[in-house]
Design goal:
Length: 175
């Protein structure tokens, strides 16, 4: 039998730098909000700019915190900010060209699952450590998966789930 490869989705990952709870890595709240906002803006792209208030209201996110997250994404070149009555935020590039990795890195900085997988790569056990290389490979695998998930794919996945729900609801009505 051939093994089937499954494309990773953002739902497969829960990250937070150097923070393991309940057996899984987790996204920071800010990174989570950033991904939600990017997906929202991708879905609303044909309608034009969205305000921070619109996005915050849509997901019950504190507006002040979301505004700070959105400004980080602007600074990273992932969003454009427009002032004025028709102002708000728009994606700086096509949603298919923006990855979850870029969004998370813009908000949280570099992703390291342990302190030894850093730029300096130093810890008190460096000379005796036998797991540094395996952990580096795990860290690289996480980055690779995040780089493979685009905002467009997150939007499309959501659309597919919504369509499946509608079909399921229709099937229930038929029976």
């Amino acid at each position: 039998m051939r093994s089937q490869q499954r494309v990773a989705t953002i739902n497969d990952i829960r990250l937070k730098q150097s923070d393991i709870r309940g057996g899984m890595l987790r996204l920071s709240k800010k990174a989570d909000y950033g991904l939600m906002a990017m997906k929202h803006l991708a879905e609303r792209a044909p309608e034009g700019a969205c305000s921070a208030k619109d996005v915050a209201d849509a997901y019950a996110i504190p507006q002040e915190l979301l505004a700070k997250v959105l400004q980080r994404l602007v600074k990273a070149g992932l969003l454009h900010s427009q002032h004025g009555t028709n102002g708000g935020y728009t994606l700086a590039r096509d949603a298919a060209k923006i990855t979850a990795y870029e969004v998370i890195r813009a908000i949280d900085g570099p992703l390291f699952i342990t302190s030894c997988i850093t730029v300096r790569g130093e810890c008190g056990q460096s000379e005796h450590c036998t797991i540094r290389e395996p952990l580096r490979r795990v860290n690289q695998s996480i980055e690779d998966v995040l780089r493979s998930i685009t905002i467009s794919a997150m939007k499309d996945e959501s659309d597919a789930v919504e369509a499946e729900s509608k079909v399921a609801a229709e099937l229930i009505k038929i029976q």
